[in-house]
Amino acid sequence: MEYEAVIGLETHVQLKTKSKMWCGCANQFGSEPNTNVCPVCLGMPGVLPVPNEEALRKTVLTGFLLNCEIPRYAKFDRKNYFYPDASKNYQLTQYDKPSTANGFVDFEFNGLGSVNGMGKVRITRAHLEEDVGKLTHFDRTSGVDFNRAGVPLLEIVSEPDITGADMAYEYLNALKEILLQGGISDCDMEKGMVRCDVNISVRPVGEKTLGAKIEIKNMNSFSGVRRAAEYEIARQIEVVKSGGKLIQSTRRWDDVAGITEEMRTKENAHDYRYFPEPDMMPLAPTDAWLAEVRALVVELPIARKQRFMRDYQLPASDAEVFKSNVELGNYFEGIAKQSKNPKAMANWIINNLLSKMAEAAKTAETSDPFSPSGGEGRDEGARADTGLATLKFPPSALLELVALVEAKTISSAAAQQVFAEMFTTGKAPAAIVQEKGLAQVSDTGALETFCDEAIAANPAPVTDYKAGKVAALNSLKGQVMKLSKGKANPALVGEILERKLKA
């Protein structure tokens, strides 16, 4: 009997806010342990939570970005459990009445479960809750840092639509790109801003009933999710094929050993004794507030890529660059709308501009005494100095450069020199061409002379060409370019040489 995997993901994302969910403590990574805390986020007796409006706004904005419905009534609940990193013995979360519900994410995917190169995962809900503290385990003791406790956390729960490890990986990357570009979260996984619980079950192919759900808890990398899913799917199939029985449970992923290990049998919802939070009014967004949030919706990455391919006839690889880098895409689009050749503009931006900007960033980092290699924190402003905002030439200069090439005023090789000078000095392309004498020679009389000299001085390739060795023409072209100091129009040179040799 053949078996198939059914996967659902619960993705926890820290929201990009200045303060915590219920109090004014800083939502800030890297502070000294237990310094961003107060009686509210520690759950002291007698305190009252006050919702962070920016967190509510970002939750609903996420709903819009994920094609969700936005209910007109939502509430917070208490989820009761005790762990050392939860100081008040419960978590404030949303359960049966969340702020968003019934959405989906479309993304590029070509594996099992895809349709015409696209994958689709339905979103059950994206609900708002609070994060817990962070435990650190030592040899004989453990410490807890409550700086993270109370940080607004969005849990994005998918339907069990994912068919395998690769599909889970692509979905998570697509989700992260949406959240980053929407300004929802910085999604820095090294800082714990995105974590994922992976729910996996297996069943015979064609069966509709789900198997026992086994959860892999607190994954902190997308590649780890893929590896863990690959291992766990194979493990579960092996168990059922050998006559064993799977039970609902929670497991951990050992990334070094490459295996999952059982932590506990899984609790059900009734074990958490959910009940409405008595200290919090329900949420009832108004039309005006929802319109205000909807105005913040950005173009989805996949829609942007498809539009660039359609409107500017770009290949998928070029459009992918502009999909992932919004600022660069905006820069390209501002120029492309004025150009008759958007593909040429894309080539210069992707192949030349990005390369020069990377070189400049590396130079700035090397010369900065406070760079990471020097052991000190680096000022992010130094990186910004090498970005698009500080380019020395205006976007119109690229239009001018491409026009010079297309008019055959300069050769492609000369254009590379012009661009390098333009990037360094900010001078206009035409001025650089004149200053450095880079204009291409297209005068037929002058080219005829260069060709005659090359033919006379190089009898061997002339003989080879007349004997049928067409490639010998390139040697003669090179001689003409040398005589003209690289300024001859290569296309015209080829035409003149062929005409003279065939005559």
The separation of the N and C termini measures 76 Å
**How many beta-strand segments?**
13
State which percent range the strand residues make up. 15-25%
Biggest sheet record: 8 strands, mixed
Number of helices: 16
CA-atom Rg in angstroms: 31 Å
As residue ranges, the low-confidence spans are 371-386
Write out the strand line-up for the largest beta sheet, numbering strands in chain order.
4-5-8-1-9-10-11-12
Shape: elongated
Q: What class, by secondary structure content?
A: alpha+beta
Helix content: 40-55%
Q: Order of SSEs, N→C?
A: EHEEEEEEEHEEHEEEHHHHHHHHHHHHH
Mean pLDDT over the residues: 91
What is the structure about, briefly put?
The protein is of the alpha+beta class. It has helices spanning 53-65, 165-181, 222-241, 287-294, 301-312, 316-324, 326-336, 342-367, 380-384, 395-406, 412-425, 429-436, 444-457, 459-466, 472-483, 490-502, and strands at residues 3-14, 77-80, 90-93, 101-108, 118-130, 134-137, 142-145, 152-158, 194-204, 214-219, 249-254, 259-265, 275-276.
Description:
By secondary structure, the chain is of the alpha+beta class. Among the domains are: 286 residues, no CATH class; 59 residues, Arc Repressor Mutant, subunit A (Orthogonal Bundle). The protein contains 16 helices and 13 strands. Strands 4-5-8-1-9-10-11-12 form an eight-stranded mixed β-sheet. Strands 3-2-13 form a three-stranded antiparallel β-sheet, with no helix packed on it. A two-stranded antiparallel sheet has the order 6-7. Helix 3 links the parallel strand 10 and strand 11. It is elongated, with a radius of gyration of 31 Å. About 3% of the residues have low confidence.
